[in-house]
Structures are given as C-alpha cells and as structure tokens.
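Need tokens for this chain, all 177 residues.
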Amino acid sequence: MTTADVSARLAWPDDVEAIASLQAESWQESFADVLGDQLDALRPHDLAERWRQTIAAPRDARQRVLVALERATIRGFALVHPCHDEDADPVADGEIGEFVIDARHRGAGHGSRLLQACADTLRADRFTRAVWWLSSTDDATRTFATAAGWAPDGAHRELAAETGATLRQVRLHTGLA
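Here are the structure tokens for all 177 residues:
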C-alpha cells in the first residue's frame, strides 16, 4: 500500500515530538517581542507532554489535533475545539486554537490542506461556524485566511504576557454549512 506524497490527517501519539518542535520554532518566530526571555526556556520536550495528553485524552470529544504531512514528515499542525469566547455558542461555534506551518515549507500547499482539514473536521463535529484568532500584525496569515473565505467579525482582544508586553488579536470567522 502506498501513501500520498502530501496529506492531512488526525494526529497520532507518535506525532507529539514533531508537533512540539514545530510549536517551539513557531513561537520563537512569532512571539519573541511578546514573550522575550521566556522563550529561552521553552523546550519542545516540555511541550510534548501537553500534546500527548491533548491527543490521547482530550478535554472534549470535539477537540482534535490535525497534522499536515509531506510523505511521513509533519510540515504543520492545527488544534480545533469548541469555541469558548463569551459571545460564542460552544455547540455551534468551533475554533482553530493553534495553526502552525513549518516556516521552511510555507507556500507548498500544506496550509491550504490543513485549513481544509480543520473545516472538514469542525463540520463533521456539527459546528456551523468557525472562528480563528490571529495576531493583529500577522498580515500573511490574515491574507491566507481571507483568500480561503474567512473574514473579520469585528471582535478583538489583548492578551497580556508576564513580560508586560501585549499581544493584540483580531477574530476571523467563516460559515461551515
């Protein structure tokens, strides 16, 4: 049996080390100005246990981790789950809580496949709307998302880090019907 050269699927427990490594790299790239020296202590090994628990025993049956693959190598991952925003309906509204594509492999279609897998998974779990919080300065991801049919819904938030820095985010949404 042969496998496709590129694909997206639900994550397996054996994927946690690769997921944790990609997350650490992504956070180094994306949050250096917010987390500062705290990132120096961030180790993939420390993140792996959280991912192991999330994959093996999620807090909600509709919480899932997906991976984008090139052959057997993970090129990205995403976390989807019910939305817990105050103005959300956790039965109808799903959320992309984390979405990371390896910076060295962006533009190769992994993000598109993974985003479609997120929408398909949320739809299969009977969500009718999906939301995705993005950094207000992440123009590349926002452009990617809007080209795929996502749009700002007017919500925004500020997350304060222990460093005193603030991460400003905007919320995008899309229908899943």
